Amino acid sequence: MSTKQKTLAVHAGTRLTGSKAVPVSPPISVSAVSWFDSSDDLDGALDGKDYAYARISAPNTTLLEEAVAALEGAEACVAYASGMAALRSLFEAQDFRPGDRLVMPADGYGVTRALYKKLCAALGVELHALKLTDAGTQARIRELKPRLVLAESITNPLLRVADLRELAKACRDVGAAFAVDATFPSPMGQRVLELGADYAVQSTSKWLNGHSDALGGTVSGARSRIDVLRAARVLSGDVLGPFEAWLTLRGLRTLPVRMKAHAEHAAHVARRLAESPLLERVIYPGLASHPDHAVAREVLKDGGPMVSFEIRGAGRPEAMRFLEALKVGRPGPSLGDVCTLVMHAASASARRLTPEERKAAGIRESLIRVSVGLEDPDDVVDDLLQAVAQGVGR
Ligand code: PLP
């Protein structure tokens, strides 16, 4: 190499000596580009055999994808810059033609609904928003013969739990691809591929990361399906950055213990909230009063980490006063953190639905969604109930 300082400043220290050490915490590989001594090696890397350019593949993303695939029980996984990017890529991979049909929840995450509505309209695809927990849904899927059915494991924010095994059968009968957004239970609470889904979707921004410090999304499934998505990601550029991948992988390491505690706390919070006369109803799949309790016991590992409730007699002003009165729970529009996050559904997760869509979904102004954190669960309940009392002026 040249001994000229300008050249050395640019080129010295770029090669690691051949250490056999495997770091317990992976290094954050920030380089977007790698170069190769051999043009054959470079050629192979451009086909994805090694790391040439971070839009094709990147080490921290690969490690995260391997970990998520393992948790989902999938052959492969592909990671994206956000959950919405994952859902958009999933849609685009279906190769929709005008006149094709798509089925999705009428009572699911509002942003997914808004995105799919827009994508369907642009392509002339018919969007059928159904309540997937309704008795006639399987028959309707067989009748509609959609190209894609998207379900949510536990719907956002009403926490309905559909029998994925039955939906999967209907999808198989008509050759529909079946995708499940399993963000709410995480792979610890439900392995959707084992229940018959073709794709498992996660917004890793939530429980997998667990600390609200990185957005991300994944789609997992059979290698043949994921390879299509991976090839499309090289073109779309919807990649996850190395630091986000690293943070998400670090969070994921504690997912099993966190999810067990979140579900135990949520069950405790739901049971105590159910005793309050200030609440019209408490929605928790682990409570016998939940409309899908029997199904939930079969398809979920536990009642899950989320609790929703309706404040008796509350409209938007009361709900906003409630949020401002919280002292332990944080009124943040997300879920999946170690701290309790509390959200007014109509103005946050369902914000992008039209008032008619919200009404049809059953999302009222009095509906509150709680992502139960790791604080002492009695502190969480006491805080929610004092804030409810303040919200409604009691
Ligand atoms: N899916 C569900 C069920 C969600 O709740 C969210 C976000 O709240 C998303 C997908 C979108 O994920 P992201 O915010 O990572 O884009």
TrEMBL record:
For this entry, list what GO says about its biological process: cysteine biosynthetic process via cystathionine; transsulfuration
Q: Which GO terms describe its molecular function?
A: cystathionine gamma-lyase activity; pyridoxal phosphate binding
Report which residue ranges the record marks as coiled coil: none
Q: Which InterPro entries match?
A: Cys/Met-Metab_PyrdxlP-dep_enz, PyrdxlP-dep_Trfase, PyrdxlP-dep_Trfase_major, PyrdxlP-dep_Trfase_small
Pfam families the record matches = Cys_Met_Meta_PP (PF01053)
Q: Name one GO cellular component term.
A: cytoplasm
Going by the UniProt record, its keywords in alphabetical order are: Pyridoxal phosphate
The family line of this record is: Belongs to the trans-sulfuration enzymes family.
Q: What is this protein called?
A: Cys/Met metabolism PLP-dependent enzyme
Q: What is the lineage of its organism?
A: Bacteria, Pseudomonadati, Myxococcota, Myxococcia, Myxococcales
